[in-house]
Amino acid sequence: MLEALHLDWSIFAIVLGGALVTWLTRVGGPWLIARVRLGPSASAALEATPGAVLVALVAPAALSRPSDALAAAFVCLIARRVPMVVAVAAGVVAVVLLRSLL
Amino acid sequence: MSTDTLTIPASPRQEFALGAIHCLPVMAGAVPFGFLLGSLAAKAGLSPLDMGLMSALVFAGSSQFVAVELLDKGTAGLAVVGAILLVNLRHLLLGATLEPRFRGVAPARAGLALFFMTDEQWALALRRGEGLTLAYWYGVGVTLYLAWLASTVAGTLAGALIADPAAWGLDFTFIAVFLCLLAGFWRGVGSLPPWLASAAAALGAHALSPGGPWHILAGALAGGAVAAWRGRGQGKGQGKGSAGDA
């Protein structure tokens, strides 16, 4: 159990640095946007940003192979009709089946 | 009496509990993800304490995967911190969209609350819209935080027990959760052009720099640019921006 409590100081320094820059990205958004007045196109861009970020997050992995793309399309179809936990579980079952077939 | 109790607004305690409940499906995606990260960290030579401190202080999954991968390759410390920053730059965009919700919150309280802002936290918070309370925010955030901490440390303790998570489809939970969150942002066919632009840009950037965080920035910028262009066109006609369909 002693190895579990071993602390590597060089890794800890990286963790502290990573924690600081990550926290700055988290508080930076509201801080910056409160100091800038937005026109209609900037507002439209900000409104579209959440969906665009989610699309960008999933697109490379979801389209990496046919089985995953089909399972992703299946999740999109059921996402608004069933609770999220059901959609996620169905998606995982679908991807396992499709990966064994395709 | 009973009608009175129905009109009483939710107490902070109820709001916290509601946040924790809404967090459960997200946890189903985060816990296997955290366990996988922990087992990879063990292979990279991190102790459970190293991993626990990283999850407790950084608390940003994708960037932790990148950091663990770079540590495994023996990358210099500053480059690892730089990579963490790049992966998390998207937080600027997420936080900017939450600004109206945090306008009345004192800086110190907002600084603490925003520490808990992850992709999942942000999506659930935005879905609450005007009804978002700090208690709900912490209900989601603290639940996800504890689940993330526990699953990553457990994964490091278990080491390489999960040899091939893809065989169980567990890697797909991440995709499925984000697709469900995305469905919540569907506002009719007007949502499609920015999303298609984002997908195209993300795929292009990912092909050029696989494993890097650039596809997220590229997708966000492309989607935002298309929306800005469309918003300006509608603004000329009616003075009512594309925000009208939101």
Please give the structural blueprint.
The complex is a heterodimer of chains A (102) and B (246).
Chain A: H1 9-33, H2 40-62, H3 66-78, H4 84-101
Helix pairs in contact in A: 3-4
Chain B: H1 2-7, H2 12-22, H3 24-43, H4 48-57, H5 61-72, H6 77-88, H7 90-102, H8 107-114, H9 119-128, H10 134-158, H11 172-183, H12 192-208, H13 214-238
What does this structure look like?
Chain A: Keywords: Membrane, Transmembrane, Transmembrane helix. Chain A: It comes from Azospirillum thiophilum. Chain A: This is Branched-chain amino acid ABC transporter. The complex is a heterodimer of chains A (102) and B (246). Chain A has 4 helices and no strands. Chain A is mainly α and 102 residues long. The mean pLDDT of chain A is 87. Chain B is mostly helical and 246 residues long. Chain B starts with a helix and ends in an 8-residue tail after the last helix. At the A-B interface, helix 1, helix 2, helix 3 and helix 4 of A face helix 3, helix 4, helix 5, helix 6 and helix 7 of B.
Key attributes of the depicted protein:
heterodimer, A: 102 residues, mainly alpha, 77% helix, flat, B: 246 residues, 13 helices, disordered C terminus, transmembrane (chain A)
Strand content of chain A: under 5%
> What is the N-to-C order of secondary-structure elements of chain A (H for helix, E for strand)?
HHHH
Q: Tell me which protein chains meet in the greatest interface and how many residues each side has.
A: A-B, 71 and 103 residues
Assembly status: heterodimer
**Main pleated sheet of chain B:** none
